[in-house]
Amino acid sequence: MDGGQVVAGLRYFSGFGNGFESEALPGALPVGRNSPQRCAYGLYAEQLSGSPFTAPRARNERSWLYRIRPTVAHWGKFSPREAGLWRTAPCHEVMVPPAPMRWDPLPLPDGKVAFPDGMMTVTSAGDAAAQTGMAAHVYALTDSMRDAAFYNADGEMLFVPQLGGLLLVTEFGRIGVEPGEIAVVPRGVKFRLELTGGAARGYVCENYGGTFTLPERGPIGANCLANPRDFLTPHAAYEDRDAPCEMIVKWGGQLWQTTLEHSPLDVVAWHGNYTPYKYDLRRFSPVGPISFDHADPSIFTVLTAPSETPGTANVDFVIFPERWAVAENTFRPPWYHMNVMSEFMGLIEGVYDAKPEGFVPGGFSLHNGMLPHGPDRDAFEAASQAELRPVKLSNTLAFMFETRLPQRVTRFAAEAPQLQAGYATYGTALRRHFDPSRA
């Protein structure tokens, strides 16, 4: 009774905003009603709402879960849990000069470190309590969660692996994600994070605002960019296990913990449109200028979380994948610019064409709103003299978390030894070429 095409234990979306369904036992999903007087198999019906009840139909997000115990039974006496290096906006720990910043990859930790202890916040923006803004984190893990589960009440989480694979064992089912793929876990969805291939490192965007959705294509039309059919949701899978389980909740910027006597990942069936999902970034179909000049980087937007201002994102997830560069009489790398949006950027693999040196996989950079940035000297000189023939930009996959809000750097990130001290003034190496006697 699963809706959608089955692919390797997951199901294709039929489009954002539509409903999906899955059941691990036949007949577990009620037909024609969401909350029957008695659910099959002695299950409980529970609704998980990701939007206000009266949100417009196109933006109304909810799923019905049919579970062994309702979440109210997954409760106990909570006590504060050490949050480590995880921070939540507003977070004004340290002042940094208004300048570009870039970091080398963070090392993997010694010993066994599991989620959420391996989360390290680099920047935060907005106010989680006001449901606006975001935070950019890096995770570095050497161990799986064991006999534990987690959910985030402050925001949804976009995982971008860079090294090693993850298995997200969620209430809705299991999602495996590797470098080159992403996974999104909505606000309030419980999961356990396991490693599938040794140590793991990557990036997380914690979105405090409205949920990620697909951007409008405008004049592009019905195709290209990220196509809805390539997003995958999990099959229902449940745990019926009576054994101690640590329950960790992020709520109000604080981590809390309690001990349950059973697994909370006990959903036997579900239906709705508020679900975790994954996407293979290699299925993104880029568009670009085929004659001359630049298109804005917004053409590379995979997902957007809109704000209350039309056309202005609370946060965009943008990628720079393999693609062809064919524009004539054009400076092809990203141009020099100042932007009202602020940009946290990471490199998953390969080389980024505007920064061929110093920006390496696992590294990350920050270019805040209205601060200048662009190619370094070597990239400028090479692109200015290059023969403009069609060139395949291969061996590259970079991404950007872009938000309308200024991103404040945490003390951890500002004092990290991986911070590149000379990056703030990389533009001073650009040579003067002005000659009024030569056009």
Strand arrangement across the biggest beta sheet: 1-2-17-21-14-11-16-9-8-29
Count helical runs. Answer: 2
Tell me, rounded to a whole number, the average pLDDT.
93
Q: What is the level-2 CATH architecture name of the domain at 285-426?
A: Sandwich
Rg (CA only):
23 Å
Characterize the biggest β-sheet. 10 strands, antiparallel
Could you name the ranges where pLDDT drops below 50 across 5 or more consecutive residues? 1-8
* Cα distance spanning the termini: 69 Å
CATH level 4 superfamily of the domain at 285-426: Jelly Rolls
Estimated helix fraction: under 10%
**Which structural category do the helix and sheet elements fall into?**
mainly beta
Strand content: 35-45%
The CATH class of the domain at 285-426: Mainly Beta
In the CATH hierarchy, the third-tier topology of the domain at 285-426 is known as: Jelly Rolls
DSSP summary, beta strand count: 29
Shape: globular
Structure overview:
The chain has two helices and 29 strands. It is mainly β and 439 residues long. It has a domain of 142 residues: Jelly Rolls (Sandwich). The strands form six sheets. The chain has a ten-stranded antiparallel beta sheet with strand order 1-2-17-21-14-11-16-9-8-29. Strand 12 and strand 13 form a beta hairpin. It is globular. The protein starts with 5 loop residues before the first strand and ends in a 24-residue tail after the last helix. The relative contact order is 0.19. The N terminus is likely disordered.
